[in-house]
Each structure stands twice: as structure tokens, then as C-alpha cells.
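**User:** Hello, beginner here. Are you able to go through the protein record under this note? It all follows right here:
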Amino acid sequence: MQSSTTAAPPVARAARRRLPLHWLGLAPFLIFAVLFLILPTMHIVLGAFRTPEGSFTLENLRGLNTDQIKAAYLISIKISLASALLGCAIGFAVAAAIVLGGLPKFIRGPLLTFSGVASNFAGVPLAFAFLATIGPVGLITVYLKTQMGIDLRLLGFNLLSFWGLTLTYLFFQIPLMILIITPALDGLKKEWREAASMLGASGLQYWRMVALPILFPSLLGTLALLFANAFGAVATAIALTGSSMNIVPILLFAQIRGDVLGNPHLGYALAFGMIVITGIANGIYIWLRARSERWLK
């Protein structure tokens, strides 16, 4: 008796077994992510729970419960929160001006291009730029003192301080906010504003009762992302302040650089704490971003 199913031709079976070629374009990214993101992260996480001999321990995490380390986490959180709040406020104002404020259209392209570059400008170059500009002997600092009689140090400003580091972080926080919030502002439909005007709402009432509630998930999500971005900025903090500030990146560097007093596994625990904090912030951003996109569709 003949079977009711017909065997597929050899050519069709070979086509099903063949790997789709469009996946090859993703291969370089996957290899890069595994080698330089996933594997180092797993090494840090495992190192936080290991002794130098390789056995399991929780002593490294208990070592975080010291006054110095807790103070470092607190200062790092404050700096990250301050730069995130200021970056959100200033970046939102700039993005609203170019999208809704009636500025010439030719400004938008160069501004977004600059924002894309500046949002990734960090580390030693950024620290050097600020030191050369408004550092203790920076160009603007010396000019104000010699030509205008204004001494920034006497006025209480110090680049190697809480507000100095916060100001430095704003250089990449504001452009990042502009890049993220601009599409959300573009998603505000003109019909919503026209409907609010027809119902007698003023511009302030439109923003308070329509626009801001819609943008609120995007704003909160971007705030969380900027917080994570600042909290994980290791190279900029080390290059700018050295060891003059008690923040987590500097303590982490001191533990893993190989000095006789360093404890690499305590450094892994410090890094693990940073991963947890930034992971929570990024998770909040992804969740709120998804909610915002549903509103703007």
C-alpha cells in the first residue's frame, strides 16, 4: 500500500538544512558582544563569589559592608542622579526647542549629529578637555582670574569635586537625552494639540494634561538610562579626579590594579554591585520605553 505522504525532494531537504545567509550579518556583533561584554561580565560575577584559591565564598560581598565603600556608593549614586536629572531637564528643553519650538529646520541635523558624537565622548579625552578649559589652571579659569578678577576657586567652584564631576558628566548626558527624547517628541500628533485647542485648553493645559502624561514613561525611562550611564562612567571619573574622590570607580581601580594592598576579588564584588545597580536602571528604562512606544503608536 502506497504511503499518503510524499517524501520531500533532496534539493528541498538541503535548502531546509542550509543556514540562512542573512544571519551572517549579525555574526560580527554577536562575536563582539560575547568576547567583550558577556564573557568579561561573567568573569566578574563569578570572581565576586570566589576566593583566590577558586572556592565559593560570600566574604567578598560582606567586604562591601564598610563605611568607606558604602560612602563611595552613596556619592556615586548622588552624582549619577544629579547628572541624570540635570541632563534630562536641559536635554528635554533643547529637544523641545528643535522639534516644537519653531527653530529653523537646518539646526536640527547638525545638532543631532553633534549629539551623536558628544554622547560617546568620554574617558581621558573628556577629562583632559575639562581640565584644560575650567580646571585649576584651565584656559577659562586663568582668563577670568587675570582679565576679569573672578577667581572660581574663591567662589567655591572646584572641578575635582562633586559638582565638577557632575558638570563633566553633563557633556555626554545632555546629548544622550536629546537623541532619546527627540523621537518621542516627534511622536506627539498634531491632532492631539488641535483637539485640545478646540476644547478650549491653553498651551499649558495641553502640556500638563495631554503631552506630559504621554511622555512621562519616556522621561522616566530616559532618566533611568542616564543614571546608569553616569554610574558606569569609570574612565572619566578616574582620569578627572584620580584618587581625590571616594567614588566606586576609583575604589574599583584601586582594588584591581595589582598593588600589594589591593584585593582583586573585592574589586570583583564592587564591580558586581555596579552591574546590579546599572542592570536595574536599564531594566526600568526598557520597561518604560516599551510602555511609551505603545502610547505613541
User: Anything to note?
Assistant: The chain has 13 helices and no strands. The chain has one domain: 29-126+158-296.
